[in-house]
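I'll show one example:
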Amino acid sequence: MEIIVCDDQIVALNAGTAENQSGGIIYKDKDGLHEIDFETCAHNYRQEEGEQESKCVAERNVTENYYLFYTSGIRTKIIFQKALVFRCYTKRRLYGSRKKRFLQLQQFIFQETKYTTFDLT
């Protein structure tokens, strides 16, 4: 079982620039705002896989357009369902085609934080 989040529910991407911030994703659903904390995800991955130094926070599958984050308890799956998302009047970080948004999130994780994802494809 997992929590399903559509990528258009993401309201912020936190690179974790302050020393006490690990970075993560903030999304909004019917219950309010929630955070996917990257350090927690990396810790859960290390516990699950028995690794000591990994910075992996999620599995990614480009052919099925999703990321599955190692959140505590139930994992959180971000899916890229809509074929196209416009930037509109908001300062949306993820916009454009499904593939473009998927790659934008991948680039954010790899280039703006110290974390990685595991490719399932």
